[in-house]
Every structure is written in C-alpha cells, then in structure tokens.
Amino acid sequence: MRRPTLLMLCLGSAVALSACEKNKESEVDRAIQSVNAIEDNDLSDIMLSVADANEAVNYFKRTSAEHPDRIDLQRNLAKSLVRAKHNTEAAAAWSKVVKHPEATNADQVDYADALIRAGNWDRAEQVLDAVPPTYETFDRYKLEAMIADKNEEWKKSDSFYETAVGLTTKPSSVLNNWGYSKLSRGDYREAERLFGEAIQYDPRLFTAKNNLILARGAQRNYQMPIFEMTQVERSQLLHTMALAAIKQGDVSIGRSLLQDAIDTNPQHFEAAVNSLEALGPAE
C-alpha cells in the first residue's frame, strides 16, 4: 500500500518542482524584459540628446519599423527628425503619431510645432484649435503666441506670451520672441526691456543680445549696454550697432562703430571690413 502513496508523493513533488521551475523562468523572463525596457529607454534618451542627429533618425526609423505599434518609438522618430532639422519629414512623422490610439494633447502640440517649423502655419493653427482649451502648457501658449504674431493679432499675442512666461522657470527664449514681436511693431522701448529680461535669465543667449542692440539702434541709442559678453560677441554687437546707425542715416557714427568692431575682434572680422569698405572713404 505504501508504493502508490510514495508514487503519488513523487509525482506531486515532480509537478511542484516543474511549477517552481516555470515560475522561476517566468520571473527571469520578466526581469530580462524589465532590464531590456530600461536599456531601451536609456538608449532612446542618449539618441535624443547626445547622439548625432542623423544617427538618431536612422536608429528610430529602424526600431519603429521593427515595432510599428509602439507610439513611444514613433514619437522619438518624430523628435529626432525635428532635431536633425528634417522639418517636412518631421511634420509627417508627427502626423502619424497623432493618429495613434494612445496619442495625447502633448502630441498634438508637438505636431503643431513641427508644422510651424515646416512653414505650414495655417495647418498648425488648425491643429492647436483642436486641442482642448483646458490643456494649458508653456509649449502650447508659446506656439499660440507665435501664430498670433503671424496673424498680426497683437492683443492675443501679448496675452499668450504673458501666459507662457508664467508657465516656465526658463522664459529666456519666449521673452526673446516676445521682444522681437514688439520690435516688429515698432515698440522699441518695450522690445529693449524684454530682450534685457531674456538676457538676465540666460546671459549666454546671443540672439537676445543682438536683438537688444537692434532695439537700441532703432532709438538712435548707440551706447553699448552693460551685460556679460565675450570679446568676439562685443565685436559682433558693435557691427550690428554700426549697421543700425547707418540705416538711421548716422553714417559717421556707423563708420566709427565699424572700426571699433574691427579693432575689438581678436581675428580678422571680414564682415565688418567689407561693410567699412562699402562706405568708401570718409568725407
């Protein structure tokens, strides 16, 4: 009578052992999948940040083709195309992303951004109009402001810029855009103020420095502002100010500023030299 009992015990042990092994295998599989997912995310982050832009495009084209249902890979392909400045292709890639069942409002905003980069402003406006008004982000309002600028809807533009500034801790770029909007309207004093704020947030933003010089030049103020700049930057800004002075008809001041730009630059400043030669000899 003991043999059947022993046999049952052995069979039960074998089944339990087999179940344990299967459980262990499942745990190992899950662990491997988890590690692979982490590695995929890490590699994606690397590709989107420090890798060569075109290499990133090729990587995400390959991986998204291998996994056509994964929206994260489609997003990363679209982002890498924007980073590589393949604007038309990027807009097409984002168009595919927003059609995915898991697409979000953020995807729609990124799609509008890509459309603007590709020069399709009307379609970008349509895409943003379809985003619920309750979705309030810095990126959304920055784009809304840019579109309002394009349409010369200045009250809307100012309102959107003001909202965007309040939604970020790094407003330098949007302050620069707002300043350029004011510059294009002829509100030079307000433009100068906004460029100055942009520089305070990011002292390395040369575009804002150059725009501030343009705003000053438009007011016939040819004094160099006081902010952090390299010797090369100072030379380039003097060149910008010289051209602004010449445009205002202050040719002798412009000539002097061009000479300062040439003397300040540690290397041969061909653009300033050419500008000075184009003026001809001083009268």
From TrEMBL:
PROSITE patterns in alphabetical order: PROKAR_LIPOPROTEIN, TPR
Keywords assigned: Signal, TPR repeat
Record's keyword annotation contains Ligase: no
Keyword Signal applies: yes
InterPro entries the UniProt entry points to: TPR-like_helical_dom_sf, TPR_rpt
Pfam families in UniProt: TPR_16
Tree of life domain: Bacteria
TM annotation in the entry: none
Ranges for the TPR repeats: 172-205
Signal peptide: 1-19
The protein's name: TPR repeat-containing protein
